[in-house]
Specification:
five-stranded mixed barrel; 12 helices; 446 residues; alpha+beta; homodimer; eight-stranded mixed beta sheet
């Protein structure tokens, strides 16, 4: 029977594919090593050919001469290479392999449709997105999403240290938190259902359970905007916390989160930052906070621009606010507080000093909104009054209201758009550039 | 201007709500402290009243006597309490507060519909789920989802250390990876769209980019099963890795993941394990691996049960396999390998030794399938042949096939059902018990 039933006897070979960094600090210089990767580029330099492998953490240079009698396989083949590991400070990871053996593990069927080996591929955004499974193999493209991983790690690690609980809330529901027209609808076993626009109701209800919660997950918005800043599906970094004194606590927590993200990128993603030519990360030690109405005045005065709509920030105004605080305070992030009540959802807490404004904020990063947050109403009677004032109905909100009936602490929270934060950090001008597989009004593939 | 614009001057007060553990090891015994929490239970013991607060990490006992002249607020109120911190080894966290002040931050409007202060609430599952925002406040219920967080942490931390990249793939697409009837469909700006049944296509394509990827996210299955083990939306822990020698590498990686999860729970979730009466975690050092056909024979022989369907495992058979390996090997997990080809999707790699079986596996945990995984086909011609053999069409798979045309390494991966893993770990008998807000054929709320 023992030849049929193995006990923990399988595998372990997954450790046999060292990364470039593993090789560089392996102490194996001068010895024969074996490793695997994808043929990324070939450079013929007279009698010497450099066979460049793409590995999970960067490029590995392999050296071949005419006398070796080894044929270079077709591009994009998956290879296993063997040879002496040599120090070479000109090679990408500081080491290279003097090839003595090469095995093709799998082969490509065609030449690649784009030159992924170049630093910039020189393709249109449309083509980049159409050919996503291939274009992402470009090192610069790939690095963007490693940075995105670093952002998520920073967010999670900081909030975990602050005693937050990670939750997974449903994306299919009978009704939506925000209401309104921008909802994807579907048939759920002959019942009407919607896709979650945000985890808002759920994360609030969970404050009554865990006190502090966060979630990283997809949200769906059927907005009919096809702009450089909008996606119809994106990844939202949400948190919500109880027992706050005011919405300033939420801003302080976000400041901590942003600081943790930048520290994590600096410490653990240096190669990716270098691949993207990012030499300095944004400052998080000087985030100004300014009232919505005052911010509008400031940019109107400084840049001689009339205030057209006192209740909303136009994209151009956001950009100017970013510019203003960069020029005046050398700030990359700005908190805009006290948004008008008519532009915030019903659960936002109004400012008792002036009910036309709310105890809420946006965070702008280099002139683009990346966060919306604020304090929420926590007493049921106030919530019902606000629902009525907004001309809404509480039908379908029974479970949400039950949480308040049964006691909810003062609380607030926020949502950060992952792709937008990445876009601003990297300095791209279209959010699709920093989305793995973007979804917009005209794009549902690949 | 400085009175209007604050610079990092907001908040920081979010640190002013110490947890029970913070208080216990604060060195503040004998001193006056202030903290916040929800009124969870009140115990009148003659002249002394114990006011029990629920905090994010457990219960905090506050002591009140008749002479204090402090009224006990209504249950479930959010409170701020002040008093001398006293050591008391009988108190939940080893300390208690001798109350001198109490402030109501917000109040409940009604008595709670269930006795959340009891160890077990004694409600039906239906009622538990209907009243989810309240029933989750029960310490045992809450602990289940803290354990779930610990599972996700263990998964992520282990794979990050193994150089995996975290990805976020779209949940809305023009077509599904698995195909078939169990797909939720919707209208996407007048185009037909589906909800992702799994990130399968995307994670495979990303192996060509990052070599090793993982994702924790929702998946949607329109299966018309209303059983104790099925959900129509669940959280899937997926990974996929390139340059494998065989699917045994995937099993080895899963073994490492499971080990890391158990270690994380043991080290960081002891209070939650105690709340759930879990005194020992499952063994991961002796996971047997057995072929599908042999496993069926073994239980048929030992438990005298005829093999009715040679191509599928019935739930009862899975349970018996779990029992067999517990009895014979003291094993909690079992890998069942070489599933029949006709029961696996087209992208599964057939066993070259016998094409009626695949190089794939399931992992059973205490007799329930929690994982499906295996090696995938990595050459395009084989993939096309398999699609044809299955009577399918490759229409709509252009981007997926492009990845293979442009070279893909040998690879494989798996998906673990988070709620099922939690259910088996905790010893619940219905997966809804370990889902925050379950979605099944008849439940779309709360």
């Amino acid at each position: 029977m023992e030849d049929i039933i193995k006990i923990n006897g399988y595998g372990g070979d997954f450790m046999n594919n060292p990364s470039v960094a593993d090789l560089a600090c392996s102490g194996m210089i001068g010895q024969i090593v074996t490793t695997r990767g994808t043929l990324h580029a070939v450079r013929e330099m007279g009698k010497v050919t450099f066979v460049i492998l793409r590995k999970r953490d960067g490029l590995l240079q392999c050296v071949l001469t005419e006398e070796d009698g080894i044929d270079v396989p077709v591009m994009a083949s998956a290879l296993e290479v063997t040879g002496v590991l040599q120090a070479n400070e000109k090679a990408p990871g500081g080491c290279e392999i003097r090839l003595s053996g090469l095995r093709v593990l799998s082969h490509a069927d065609r030449t690649l449709p784009v030159a992924i080996g170049k630093k910039r591929m020189n393709v249109t955004l449309e083509k980049n997105l159409d050919l996503r499974p291939v274009t992402l193999r470009n090192l610069r493209e790939r690095a963007k999403f490693r940075i995105q991983m670093g952002i998520c790690e920073g967010f999670r690690n900081y909030l975990t240290a602050q005693h937050f609980t990670e939750i997974h809330t449903p994306k299919l529901s009978a009704r939506s938190a925000e209401g309104g027209a921008n909802i994807f609808k579907l048939d759920y076993f002959h019942h009407p259902a919607v896709l979650a626009q945000s985890p808002q109701f759920y994360k609030q209800m969970m404050v009554g359970v865990f006190e502090r919660v966060y979630e990283i997950g997809p949200v769906f918005r059927a907005e009919k905007h096809n702009t450089k800043r909008h996606l119809n599906e994106y990844t939202s970094l949400d948190f919500e916390m109880g027992f706050i004194d005011s919405f300033y606590d939420i801003m302080a927590m976000e400041t901590g989160v942003l600081e943790a993200i930048m520290t994590n990128l600096k410490e653990n993603y240096a190669p990716e930052l270098a691949a993207l030519d990012i030499t300095s990360l944004p400052r998080t030690d000087n985030i100004p906070s300014v009232r919505f109405d005052r911010a509008k005045e400031l940019v109107s005065e400084k840049y001689d621009r009339p205030i057209r709509n006192p209740y909303d920030l136009e994209p151009e105004e956001e950009a100017l606010i970013g510019r203003y605080f960069k020029e005046e305070y050398d700030a990359d992030f700005v908190f805009i507080t006290h948004y008008p009540s008519k532009k915030r959802p019903f659960y936002a807490m109004d400012d008792p000093a002036d009910e036309t404004f709310t105890l809420s904020f946006d965070c702008l990063f280099r002139g683009l909104e990346i966060t919306t947050g604020g304090q929420r109403i926590h007493q049921k009677d106030e919530l019902l009054a606000k629902i009525e004032k907004k001309g809404m109905t509480s039908e379908g909100m029974e479970a949400y209201l039950l949480a308040f009936e049964c006691g909810m602490p003062p609380h607030g929270g926020l949502g950060i758009g992952l792709e937008r934060l990445t876009m601003q950090l990297i300095g791209e001008d279209n959010v699709r550039e920093t989305t793995l597989f973007p979804r917009d009004m005209t794009r549902l593939t690949p």
